[in-house]
Write a structure and sequence with these properties.
Length: about 90
């Protein structure tokens, strides 16, 4: 969730990155997980401080709970309709 929220809240100032791991057999690797999960009632939308006439909102607001309920219901399997993705909330120019 946090990767999607970052793109929307920052109005595309920060993009999500793909997580890649490279095995190094000669050096230890430490991972420090950080989890951020807003409540199901939270509406995710671009921060008001980042939206103005020169930089309009690039995403429609969406509800975290509904977003995750839809994704979890699909279990990321192929369905007759496309699994909901963050780009579905992108406002096209």
């Amino acid at each position: 969730m946090q990767e999607y929220a970052r793109e929307v809240w920052s109005n595309d100032k920060y993009e999500s990155v793909e997580h890649r791991v490279v095995v190094n057999t000669e050096k230890e690797r430490f991972s420090i997980p950080f989890f951020f999960f807003p409540g199901h009632h939270v509406m995710v939308k671009p921060a008001e401080e980042l939206v103005n006439e020169q930089n309009p909102a690039k995403y429609k607001p969406y509800n975290v709970g509904k977003f995750y309920a839809n994704r979890n219901r699909s279990d990321f399997n192929k369905r007759e309709v496309e699994n909901i993705q963050i780009h579905h909330f992108k406002i096209l120019d």
